[in-house]
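Bit of a strange request maybe. I'm writing a small parser for structure token strings and I need a real example to test against, not something I typed by hand. Could someone generate the tokens for this chain?
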Amino acid sequence: MVELLDLYLRKAGFQVSCAFDAEAGIREFDLFDADLVIVDDTVPGNEYLDVVRRIRAGSTVPVIILGSHGSQESRDESYAVGADDFISKPFRPRDMISVIKLALMRARLRR
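Reply from user aminoacidic:
Good idea to test on real output. This should exercise your parser:
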């Protein structure tokens, strides 16, 4: 899934950096000046929520959760820790691109 998402985002003109676990994701975030972060909820346990919390502790960068469970509970938990949006799998790549563009536009308006 990550490889396909990476491909779709690059084809849409975005620069992409991928990490495959929570700690690596935080390291990548700390190294690069990301305009947006997508966090997959399949990170072991609820570590994806920890990633969002850690990002929110020092940044207002838009965070989108890519959710394997579209349950209201998962959405509520994601929004409660600071996620800006939640996209359930499976999703259409063009919908993901639209959500990303909207999140980036909102972030620019907040500045």
